[in-house]
Amino acid sequence: MLSSLKIPRIIGHRGAKGYAPENTLSSFRKAKELGATWVEFDVKETEDGILVIMHDDDLDRTTNGKGPMAKTPWTVVNELDAGAWFDQAFSGEKIPTFDETILLLKELKLGANIEIKPCPNRDERTAVAIANAIAKKWPKELPQPLVSSFSMDSLRTAKRTHPDLIIGALFETLPSDWKKIAKEVQAQTINLDQDIVTLEMIKEINNEGYPVLTYTVNDKKRAYDLFNMGVHSIFTDYPWKE
């Protein structure tokens, strides 16, 4: 399994989050400019079911809007500024749709880790929508994306919807029954917080045939220490070309 997945060692976190407003088209372009070949981003739904690139459940932190995404229709979301909070140079930046993002990834030749980030109580419906969008619209010239989530319900649903999806089980801490969970969701990678990984943990996971991907690694020395410990890939706010 380790050798069969074409996932690079360096993946831009929410694009190039350290240099541009996260989860925006500008951030994905910046990641490409810096030499990244893959980016990671979060997908959730508006009130009326439009798939958009957004991390938080609420609009407040990364836009000039307020309140929950789940209660905001696309017509309102589409008018929000998602760049000025980061820097005035990005004023007018929009929250991109998943469709817009797929088109840009095709143009830039960027692979992706797509994180299913459902609004509360939307784990299954958001997973179905994302799985269907990938099946219908993912460019054949791009590598098959890695689909990850902290929601095991989302992962089970996505895999059931389209069995060809490559699944990454995402954990803040590694549960004692992680092997059982990984089999249930048919995971092919284990994605972990870099702060909790140990050499023993990485060896145990690798010995079961799973690559370990760690987030969020913003120090190059730490990144290469993790690679030497057996980590397959890192997510970073400051991607670089190896």
From TrEMBL:
Pfam families: GDPD. Residues 8-242 form the GP-PDE domain. One of its GO terms (molecular function) is phosphoric diester hydrolase activity. One of its GO terms (biological process) is lipid metabolic process. InterPro entries: GP_PDE_dom (IPR030395), PLC-like_Pdiesterase_TIM-brl (IPR017946). This is Glycerophosphoryl diester phosphodiesterase. It comes from Fluviispira multicolorata.
